[in-house]
Design a protein that fits this description.
Blueprint: H1 16-23, H2 29-40, H3 48-65, H4 73-88
Length: 90
């Protein structure tokens, strides 16, 4: 279980803007859902719970669509970066 804390270390690669710019490149429903979530739910600083949701949705997108091509590299990196941040918060 994840303890939801609004305070996390800032990561310039995982801001609302950078994540939105990544997800806008993909036409999948999961990516659109994450863009709406980022726009309507997330504060300027992403918290642990927000990052966990974004990671889980990105993993769902990859499970459904990833054919291991270079096209999905940015989405795979999002998952790895969020996993790193979440594990360092424990």
């Amino acid at each position: 279980m994840i303890h939801c804390s609004p305070v996390i270390k800032n990561n310039p690669d995982l801001t609302r803007e950078t994540l939105n710019n990544i997800f806008i490149n993909y036409g999948f429903v999961e990516c659109h859902t994450m863009r709406v979530f980022i726009e309507l739910v997330c504060d300027a600083t992403l918290g642990v719970c927000e990052l966990a949701y974004i990671r889980d949705k990105t993993e769902e997108c990859l499970r459904t669509h990833d054919n291991k091509s270079h096209y999905f590299t940015e989405l795979r990196k999002v998952v790895m970066d969020i996993d790193y941040i979440l594990t360092s918060q424990r």
